[in-house]
Design goal:
The complex is a heterotrimer.
Chain A: E1 8-17, E2 20-30, E3 35-39, H1 46-54, E4 61-66, E5 69-70, E6 78-81, H2 95-101, H3 104-107, H4 115-127, H5 143-156, E7 161-165, H6 173-188, E8 192-196, H7 200-206, E9 209-213, E10 217-222, H8 229-236, E11 240-242, E12 248-250
Parallel strand pairs in A: 3-8, 3-9, 6-7, 7-8
Antiparallel strand pairs in A: 1-2, 1-4, 4-5, 9-10, 11-12
Chain B: H1 2-19, E1 34-37, H2 40-50, E2 55-58, H3 73-80, E3 84-87, H4 95-102, E4 110-112, H5 145-162, H6 167-193, E5 201-206, H7 210-216, E6 219-225, H8 234-247, E7 251-255, H9 261-270, E8 273-278, H10 291-306
Parallel strand pairs in B: 1-2, 1-3, 3-4, 5-6, 7-8
Helix pairs in contact in B: 2-5, 2-6, 5-6, 6-10, 8-9
Chain C: H1 3-8, H2 14-39, H3 43-63, H4 67-89, H5 94-114, H6 119-127, H7 135-154, H8 156-164, H9 166-171, H10 176-217, H11 221-246, H12 250-283
Chain lengths: ~260, ~300, ~280
C-alpha cells in the first residue's frame, strides 16, 4: 500500500470519440516527481489519455484522480501544453501575453496581473531563454521558439503537474535539449511531468519512465523498456519492419494521425 | 354578475362581428347587385350613391395603409363575386388590377373613380408633394368634398347603366348623398372661415390633404413622409422641423394606418403635440365610420388645432 | 456653406444627435465583439444570428411586446443552439447553420406577410431606423452597450485565453464551454441592440468589417480591439453625416465607409510588403 498519494491515478479508463474507443481499460499510477513519456502508434490513444488526465475529455468508464481528487478539482495546479498543430499561430498575441495566460488560474476570475505575476512571467521567459522576445508576435517565431513559449506558459503557472502533448516532436536538437533540461529540473523539484512523444530515442535517454500505449497499456516501467523488442512488437505491431542484420525499423509517421477528432479546427 | 358577463360577451361578439373581415354595408342585397371597393372610404361613397339596397364591401382591412397594401389570394376570391369593382386609380391602389386578373374579371368591371376628371368637370389635378413624373397626380381627390361628389356621381351613373331597373332607387339615394355632401362642404367652409387664413396651417403624416387644403385655403406646412412605405431622410426630417418652428404650428396629425414614431420624435423636438387619427385613406370606428362623419371629425380637429 | 457649418448644422436637431450617439455606440460595441468573432472565424454565425432574430422581432411586433425582447430571445436561442450543434458535431457545420438561418428568416417573412402590417416597419427591421430613436431607446442602448463592455472588461483574460487556446484554458480549469456560450450570448445581444441602428441585413458588416480591417493593421489583440473600435465609431459618425448630406440610408453609408477603410488598409499593407521586399532585394 502506497503511503504517498499518487499525482495521477487512472483506474480502468475507457475513452474515445464517436463510437470508437481510443483507450480501453487503462490503469495507471504516476507518482510525484516522475518524468514519464507515453509512446505508441498513431491512434493509440496518447493524446486521448493526456486529455482525460487534463479534464478535456470525459472517460466513458473508469475513474481518473489528479492530486488525490477528481479531475478538475485541482485544475489550477495542472498545466497543459497542446500540440503545436493545434495552436492558432496567427492569433495576434505576443510571447509575453501568451506566458501571462499561464497566470490565469493564479489570478482568479476578476484578478488583474500584479508585480508577482509579471515577475513570474519574466522568470519563465528567462528559463526558456526567450526573455528578449517578449514583445514578438507568436506567428513570427521559429518552431523551436514556439514550443518554448508554451513551456514558459506552463512554468509561469507554477503547476504541480505538467502535461505535454508532443513537446519535442519535430524540434531541433538544441531546443529539444533545452526543453528536456527544464522538464528534468521540474521533476527533480517534485513536480510530475507526463509527455507524449514519437521520439523513442529521446524517451529512452531523457525520461525516467515510459508507458507503452496502443489502445491499452502494453507496459509501464523504466525508460529502457522503449528499447525492448518484445515491448516494441506488442506496441507497434505491423508498423515494425525487421532488418536483415537483426533489429527492426519502426515506421510511424508523426504527421499521419488516425485521430481526426483530436484537432480543434 | 352573470348577466353583466352575458351582456359583455354579447357586446364583444357584436363588435368582433362588425370588425372582422370586410367593412361596409352588410345588408343582404335586395337587388342582387354587388359592389367591391378597394377601401372603406370608397365603399361609403358607394353607399351614398346607391343606398342600402346594394351590397357593398371593401378589401383593405381597418388600420392598413392602402398605398403599400399587398393583396392576398383570398382577396381575389372576394372580387370574383362582385359585379362592380371601384378603385381610386392615380397610383393609389393599382394592386387591385392584379386581383382583377387573378379573379378572371375583365377591366370593364373596374371603375376608376379618380381618373379622367378634367376641366369639363370643373376639376384641376394637383401634383403630389414629391412628384417624379409630370404625369402623376395627387390621388387623394376624395378628401375634397367636391371631388367626393364626382365620385358619387360616377358610381351612381355606372350602377344605373349596369342595372337600369335600379335607376329610381339609385337616383333617390344619390340625391340624398349629394345633399349631404353639399351640406358638409358648407359647414366645413363656415368652420374655417372663422379662422384667419394666416393661421390655417397644418402638418399631416402623409400628403393626403392637398385638395382639402386647396378647397379651404389651408397651408400645409409639411408632411412627415413624402411617400408611404419610405422613411423620410435626415434632411427631410430637419426641413420639417424647421418648417414647423417657422410656422408656429403647435399640432401635428398622425393617421391611424401609419406608425407614428417619426412624428413623435419631430413633435418632441418642436414642442408640438401629436393629435391622433385624421381620416385620410380609410375610415375607422365612430365617429369616423362614414365619409361624412369622418370629414366632420377631421374638420373639427383641424380647426381646433389652428386655434391653439 | 463653410465646412464648420456642414458639421454643426445637423447637430441643431435632437433627432440627429440621438442618431449620432446611437450609431457611435453601436459602432463601438459591434467592433469590439466583432474582434472576437473575426478571430474565431464566426462571421457566418454572426450573420445567421442576425437573420434568426427576425421571427422573434415579428412575433413581438404582432403581440405588441418590445421588439428588442423578441429579437433577443430568438437571437440568443439561435446562438446557443448553433454552439451546441457545433460542439456536438465537432466541426463547424456551416450547412446546418445555413439551414437554421434561412429557415428562421423565412418563418419571420411568413408570419409578417400574414399579419396586417405596414411595409415601412419591415424596412426598419431589415435596414434600421436610427433616425427614429427616442430618448428611451437611446438610454436603453447606452446601458446595454456599457453592460456589454463591462462584461468584456471583467472577463477579458478568460475570454482571451479560451479563444486563443481552448485546450490549455480548459485544462487550467477555465469553463471553456460556458465562456464560448457567453461569447455567443454577447454576440447575440450586440446584434439585437444594433438592429435599430443598422438593421438585420447590415449588422454583420458592422461586426466583421472594422475588426477585419484592424486585423490587417496590427498584431496585438488589445491593439486590434482599439483600432476596430476607433474605426467603428468614426465610420458611424462620418457615415451619418454622409447620409445626411447625400440623402442616403444611414446604415448603408456607415457600412460602405467601413468597407472602403478595409480596402484602403488592404492596399496599404500590400504596398508596404512590396516596399519591404524591394528594400530587401536592394540590400543583396
Amino acid at each position: 500500500m502506497n503511503n504517498e498519494i499518487n499525482a495521477i491515478e487512472l483506474v480502468d479508463v475507457t475513452a474515445g470519440y464517436g463510437d470508437r474507443a481510443a483507450i480501453s481499460s487503462v490503469s495507471l499510477s504516476l507518482a510525484p516527481g516522475s518524468l514519464t513519456a507515453i509512446f505508441g502508434p498513431n491512434g493509440g490513444g496518447k493524446s486521448t489519455l493526456l486529455k482525460c488526465i487534463a479534464g478535456l475529455m470525459q472517460p466513458w468508464s473508469g475513474g481518473v484522480q489528479v492530486l488525490g481528487a477528481a479531475v478538475g478539482v485541482h485544475a489550477k495546479r495542472v498545466a497543459y501544453v497542446p500540440q503545436a498543430e493545434q495552436v492558432d499561430w496567427s492569433f495576434p498575441v505576443s510571447v509575453g501575453e501568451v506566458v501571462m495566460m499561464g497566470r490565469t488560474p493564479a489570478l482568479g476570475p476578476l484578478g488583474r496581473p500584479g508585480a508577482a505575476d509579471h515577475a513570474a512571467v519574466a522568470d519563465a521567459l528567462a528559463r526558456v531563454d526567450m526573455a528578449d522576445l517578449a514583445q514578438r508576435q507568436i506567428g513570427e517565431l521559429s518552431g523551436g521558439q514556439r514550443r518554448r513559449v508554451f513551456l514558459a506558459r506552463a512554468i509561469a503557472a507554477d503547476p504541480e503537474i505538467y502535461l505535454l502533448d508532443e513537446p519535442v516532436t519535430g524540434v531541433d536538437p538544441t531546443t529539444q535539449e533545452k526543453i528536456m533540461n527544464i522538464l528534468d529540473a521540474e521533476a527533480a523539484r517534485g513536480r510530475t511531468v507526463v509527455a507524449t512523444t514519437h521520439d523513442l530515442a529521446c524517451a529512452a535517454q531523457r525520461f525516467h519512465d515510459v508507458v507503452a500505449l496502443a489502445g491499452r497499456v502494453v507496459a509501464h516501467g523504466p525508460a529502457q523498456l522503449v528499447l525492448d523488442q518484445g515491448v516494441l512488437e506488442k506496441t507497434y505491431g505491423g508498423h515494425l519492419v525487421p532488418l536483415a542484420g537483426g533489429g527492426v525499423v519502426l515506421l510511424d509517421d508523426p504527421h499521419h494521425s488516425h485521430g481526426a477528432h483530436e484537432g480543434h479546427e | 354578475m352573470s348577466r353583466r358577463l352575458l351582456v359583455t360577451l354579447v357586446a364583444l361578439l357584436a363588435v368582433s362581428a362588425a370588425c372582422g373581415g370586410s367593412t361596409g354595408s352588410p345588408s343582404a342585397s335586395a337587388s342582387g347587385y354587388r359592389v367591391m371597393a378597394t377601401t372603406s372610404v370608397f365603399a361609403d361613397l358607394a353607399r351614398l350613391a346607391l343606398g342600402d339596397s346594394v351590397q357593398i364591401d371593401s378589401i383593405v382591412p381597418a388600420g392598413i395603409d392602402v398605398h403599400t397594401f399587398e393583396p392576398s389570394p383570398s382577396d381575389a376570391a372576394k372580387i370574383a363575386t362582385a359585379d362592380l369593382i371601384i378603385m381610386n386609380g392615380l397610383g393609389l391602389d393599382e394592386w387591385v388590377v392584379s386581383l382583377i386578373e387573378a379573379a378572371h374579371k375583365s377591366s370593364s368591371d373596374l371603375l376608376r373613380l379618380g381618373e379622367g376628371l378634367d376641366a369639363s368637370d370643373g376639376w384641376i389635378y394637383l401634383a403630389p408633394a414629391d412628384s417624379g413624373t409630370a404625369r402623376s397626380y395627387d390621388p387623394h381627390v376624395w378628401l375634397d368634398p367636391t371631388g367626393a361628389t364626382h365620385y358619387v356621381q360616377r358610381i351612381a351613373d355606372r350602377a344605373a347603366q349596369d342595372r337600369p331597373e335600379l335607376t329610381n332607387t339609385i337616383r333617390s339615394a344619390s340625391a340624398k348623398g349629394f345633399a349631404a355632401l353639399a351640406e358638409l362642404d358648407t359647414d366645413v367652409r363656415a368652420l374655417f372661415s372663422e379662422i384667419p387664413e394666416a393661421n390655417r396651417k397644418i402638418v399631416t403624416f402623409h400628403d393626403a390633404f392637398g385638395y382639402y387644403a386647396r378647397a379651404y385655403s389651408i397651408t400645409i406646412v409639411g408632411v412627415a413622409i413624402a411617400s408611404p412605405g419610405q422613411d423620410p431622410s435626415a434632411r427631410e426630417i430637419a426641413a420639417l422641423i424647421d418648417a414647423i418652428r417657422a410656422s408656429g404650428v403647435t399640432t401635428v396629425f398622425s393617421e391611424v394606418q401609419f406608425p407614428s414614431k417619426v412624428l413623435t420624435s419631430i413633435a418632441a423636438e418642436t414642442g408640438a403635440t401629436v393629435l391622433a387619427d385624421l381620416y385620410s385613406d380609410a375610415l375607422g370606428a365612430a365617429p369616423g365610420d362614414t365619409y361624412i362623419s369622418a370629414m366632420r371629425a377631421n374638420a373639427t380637429a383641424i380647426a381646433a388645432s389652428m386655434q391653439r | 456653406m463653410n465646412p464648420l457649418d456642414l458639421l454643426l448644422a445637423p447637430l441643431g436637431y435632437d433627432f440627429f444627435v440621438r442618431a449620432l450617439i446611437a450609431s457611435a455606440l453601436v459602432g463601438v460595441a459591434c467592433a469590439i465583439v466583432g474582434s472576437f468573432v473575426v478571430l474565431k472565424g464566426m462571421s457566418f454565425i454572426g450573420d445567421a444570428v442576425s437573420h434568426a432574430a427576425f421571427p422573434g422581432i415579428v412575433i413581438a411586433y404582432l403581440v405588441g411586446a418590445p421588439i428588442i425582447l423578441g429579437g433577443a430571445i430568438a437571437a440568443i436561442g439561435t446562438a446557443l443552439g448553433i454552439g451546441a450543434i457545433t460542439r456536438r458535431s465537432g466541426l463547424r457545420s456551416d450547412a446546418i447553420i445555413g439551414v437554421l438561418f434561412a429557415g428562421m428568416f423565412a418563418l419571420g417573412v411568413a408570419i409578417f406577410s400574414s399579419i396586417p402590417n405596414y411595409v415601412g416597419d419591415l424596412f426598419h427591421f431589415l435596414f434600421g431606423d436610427v433616425l427614429g430613436i427616442s430618448v428611451g431607446d437611446l438610454a436603453a442602448l447606452t446601458l446595454l452597450v456599457f453592460g456589454l463592455l463591462l462584461v468584456l472588461r471583467l472577463l477579458w483574460k478568460e475570454l482571451l485565453f479560451s479563444t486563443f487556446d481552448p485546450l490549455g484554458a480548459g485544462a487550467a480549469g477555465l469553463p471553456v464551454r460556458r465562456l464560448d456560450d457567453l461569447l455567443l450570448i454577447l454576440i447575440a445581444v450586440t446584434i439585437v441592440i444594433s438592429l435599430q441602428a443598422v438593421g438585420i441585413v447590415l449588422v454583420v458588416a458592422m461586426i466583421t468589417t472594422p475588426a477585419a480591417t484592424a486585423q490587417l493593421l496590427v498584431k496585438r489583440f488589445t491593439a486590434m480591439i482599439q483600432v476596430a473600435a476607433i474605426i467603428g465609431v468614426s465610420s458611424a459618425v462620418v457615415g451619418l453625416y454622409v447620409s445626411y448630406s447625400l440623402d442616403i440610408a444611414s446604415g448603408a453609408a456607415i457600412v460602405i465607409l467601413e468597407t472602403l477603410l478595409f480596402l484602403i488598409a488592404l492596399a496599404f499593407i500590400s504596398i508596404r510588403s512590396r516596399l519591404y521586399a524591394a528594400r530587401g532585394a536592394a540590400k543583396i
